[in-house]
Amino acid sequence: MFTAFVMVKATPQKIAAIAQEIANMPSVAEVYSVTGDFDILVVLRLAEYEQLAEAVPDGLSKIEGITGTSTVLAFRRFSAKDLDAAWDIGVS
What we know:
By secondary structure, the protein is of the alpha+beta class. Helices cover 24% and strands 33% of the residues. It contains three helices and four strands, in the order βαββαβα. A four-stranded antiparallel sheet has the order 2-3-1-4. The model has no long low-confidence stretch (mean pLDDT 89).
């Protein structure tokens, strides 16, 4: 299992409808409307690498109103417990 983050640029008037359509797609775990250079952030949870092609170029990119995407793959997931240990610099 791996995680991918897809940042989506969309037509402003269609952001909510596009986000809802994305939320109903297979492999989509979470969808957020966000600030910054992109309008929507999509969290994908995928069992196999090939599913990425199904989700992004064969899926998301074909939704009317999406004007661009950028995809980032996660190397590793950290929980709050992991982060506490990783950032311990000995300060009491």
